[in-house]
Write a structure and sequence with these properties.
Elements (H helix, E strand, L loop, with lengths): L2 H18 L1 H5 L3 E4 L2 E6 L3 H10 L1 H28 L28 H25 L4 E9 L2 E8 L1 H6 L2 H32 L4 E11 L14 E5 L2 E2 L3 H8 L7 E6 L2 E6 L1 E3 L2 E6 L2 E9 L10 H22 L8 H11 L4 H27 L1
Antiparallel strand pairs: 1-2, 2-3, 3-4, 5-6, 5-12, 6-7, 6-8, 8-9, 10-11
Length: about 375
C-alpha cells in the first residue's frame, strides 16, 4: 500500500478520537476548530525563557546578522524558483515532502524514519527560535503547541500579538527571521557532522559495488530486482564503484533490454523513459555505495557510521530546504511579514500591503504550478 494511505489513516484516527473525546481533551489544552486541531501548553515557556536569558546579547547580535542573511536568502530562493519555470516539467524546483511516500515528479525520496526525525528537528528548532527571540525582545509567549490543519501537521509558538504589533520594527524582523535562520544554522552544523562521519568511513570500510536501496513503484525494476541486492554487472560492464555505475546507467536509452547481474542472480529489464530526461533509459532503482568492513578492531560498531551519515544528511537537507522556503516573500510565511516590515520603513501601510499581497499571490501560483507540473 502506498505510504500516503498510512498517513491518511493515522490522521483520520486522530480526528475521530479528538471528536469523540473533545470535552475531556479540552482540559489538557486540545482545541478543535475545524479544519484545525491545536494542542497548547505553557509548560515549555520556562525552558525557552531560560535559554533566551543565557546570553541576550548573543541572541540579539546573532539575529542582527540573521536578518541580513534572511533577506539575502529571500532573494536567492525567490530567484531560484522563478528562474526554473522554463524547465519545470523536467525538473520541478518545488516538491511536497512526506517521509516514506513517493511524490510524483520529485527527484527526492525521503526515508520514513530519518525523514520524521529530520522534520521534528525542523519544527522544534524553528519554533523554539521564534520563542527565544521573542522573549529576548520582551514579547511574552502565551503558549507553545502542535497543530493539525486538515492533514498537515505543524508546530507553533504563540506570542502576545498586541506586544508584537507594538514592538519596534527591528525587533519584529529579528523575531520573524529567527526560525529560518536557526534552521539554516542547524543545516550547516549537520553538514559539518556529516563530513566528519564520512571522513571516518574509509578508516573501516572499502567500496565494494553498488547496493539497491529502493525500487521505485511502477518502474521497470519493480517485481524483478529487490532492495538489498548488490549490483555486480550491467550488460557485461563491471560495477566496481559508484562512478562506474553512473557512467553505465546514463548510457542506456528507453526500451533497451538490459542484463543485470547481482549477488542474487541475473535478471533482464526493459527500460522506460526517465521522468526527468526522456532520452535516457530508466531502471527505477535508487542505489548507494556498498561497503565491506576491512577493519574489525571495533567489531560491528563502525556500521553505525552509515546510519549517522544518512541522518545528518536529511537533517541538513530538510532544515535548509524548509528554512529557505519559509523565507519566500509570501504571507503567511515569515518572509512575507519580513518584507512588509522592510517596506514599511519607506511606504505607508496602504502602499506596501497591496505590493506584498500581489507578490504573495503570484509566487503562490508559481509554487502550485511547479507542484502540479511535477505530478503531470
Amino acid at each position: 500500500m502506498n505510504g500516503i494511505y498510512y498517513y491518511l489513516i493515522a490522521f483520520a484516527v486522530i480526528w475521530i478520537l479528538v471528536a469523540i473525546f473533545r470535552e475531556r481533551l479540552s482540559t489538557h489544552g486540545v482545541e478543535l476548530n475545524f479544519p484545525v486541531i491545536m494542542w497548547k501548553t505553557q509548560k515549555l515557556r520556562g525552558l525557552i525563557s531560560r535559554i533566551s536569558n543565557l546570553s541576550p546579547k548573543f541572541w540579539r547580535w546573532y539575529m542582527n546578522v540573521g536578518v541580513i542573511v534572511a533577506f539575502g536568502a529571500m532573494i536567492f530562493i525567490t530567484w531560484t524558483i522563478v528562474s526554473t519555470l522554463p524547465s519545470v516539467f523536467e525538473t520541478p524546483s518545488v516538491s511536497i515532502v512526506i517521509p516514506g511516500v513517493d511524490i510524483p515528479g520529485s527527484q527526492i525520496y525521503v526515508p520514513f524514519v530519518y525523514g520524521l526525525i529530520a522534520l521534528a528537528t525542523v519544527l522544534v528548532v524553528h519554533e523554539f527560535s521564534h520563542g527565544i527571540q521573542a522573549i529576548g525582545e520582551k514579547i511574552p509567549i502565551k503558549s507553545i503547541g502542535l497543530l493539525l490543519f486538515a492533514i498537515i501537521p505543524g508546530a507553533f509558538v504563540e506570542p502576545d500579538e498586541e506586544k508584537l504589533k507594538k514592538a519596534k520594527r527591528s525587533s519584529k524582523l529579528r523575531v520573524y527571521a529567527a526560525g529560518s535562520i536557526a534552521n539554516v544554522t542547524l543545516a550547516l552544523i549537520a553538514l559539518i557532522l556529516l563530513s566528519l562521519v564520512s571522513a571516518g568511513i574509509p578508516q573501516f570500510f572499502e567500496e565494494d559495488g553498488i547496493a539497491v536501496d529502493r525500487i521505485v513503484p511502477d518502474s521497470p525494476s519493480e517485481g524483478i530486482l529487490k532492495e538489498g541486492m548488490v549490483l555486480q554487472e550491467i550488460d557485461n560492464h563491471r560495477i566496481n564503484d559508484s562512478q562506474a555505475y553512473v557512467d553505465i546507467v546514463s548510457s542506456f536509452s528507453p526500451r533497451d533490454n538490459v542484463e543485470v547481474k547481482t549477488d542474487q542472480g541475473t535478471y533482464h529489464i526493459t527500460l522506460a523513459k526517465n521522468p526527468n530526461n526522456e532520452s535516457v533509459g530508466f531502471f527505477g532503482i535508487q542505489a548507494n555505495k556498498h561497503f565491506e568492513l576491512i577493519n574489525d578492531s571495533w567489531g560491528p560498531l563502525p556500521w553505525i557510521l552509515f546510519e549517522l551519515a544518512e541522518l545528518f544528511q536529511w537533517i541538513s537537507m530538510l532544515n535548509l530546504g524548509i528554512g529557505l522556503f519559509n523565507l519566500l516573500p509570501i504571507k503567511p510565511l515569515d518572509g512575507g511579514y519580513m518584507l512588509e516590515i522592510l517596506l514599511s520603513y519607506k511606504l505607508s501601510e496602504r502602499q506596501y500591503k497591496p505590493i506584498v499581497n500581489a507578490l504573495s499571490m503570484v509566487l503562490a501560483m508559481v509554487i502550485v504550478f511547479s507542484i502540479v507540473a511535477g505530478f503531470l
